[in-house]
Write a structure and sequence with these properties.
Layout: E1 3-5, E2 12-14, H1 22-41, H2 47-54, H3 58-66, E3 80-81, E4 88-89, H4 96-110, H5 116-121, H6 123-137
Helix pairs in contact: 1-2
The protein binds zinc ion (2 copies).
Length: about 140
């Protein structure tokens, strides 16, 4: 078993692919539910308003946005940038245009350097999904 220290609370936990322990992850989930509920009830709220009302760190709220789990509808709330072209986005990591372009490029690259056996087995897809998950967790 891989034992590590939680990067959030410092306690020892059995590493399972995440940098924080189960308890801290549960706390994040609770916070996420609180933020989600607040935004549902107050769709026009800004991040600082959400943070004040829910007493949850705005950094954490921005992290939820970056993970694509939340969307703040207010036009003034554009705080995220597409990691590819720099366009302002409201949720996730890339703008719609780049997502489409990347999908197209990915399909093209399959014809090239990638072993078709891996694609058939679904290994490629699996690997991409996993690295994505890690990247989002930071
Ligand atoms: Zn922890
Ligand atoms: Zn973009």
């Amino acid at each position: 078993m891989d034992i590590r220290n939680c990067t959030r609370c410092g306690k020892i936990y059995a590493y399972d692919g995440f940098n924080i322990c189960l308890k801290c992850r549960r706390e994040d989930e609770d916070d996420f539910e609180i933020v989600k509920e607040y935004i549902n009830e107050n769709p026009g709220a800004t991040i600082s308003e959400v943070s004040e009302a829910t007493e949850i760190d705005s950094k954490k709220i921005i992290e939820f946005l970056r993970q694509g789990r939340l969307e703040i509808k207010d036009e003034n709330n554009i705080i995220l940038k597409c990691e590819r072209c720099g366009a302002s986005i409201k949720t996730g990591r890339f703008c719609d245009k780049c997502v489409l372009e990347m999908q197209r490029e990915f399909k093209q690259s399959i014809g090239g350097g990638v072993d078709p056996k891996n694609i058939r087995d679904g290994k490629m897809k699996e690997r991409i999904k996993i690295t994505d998950k890690y990247r989002n967790r930071e």
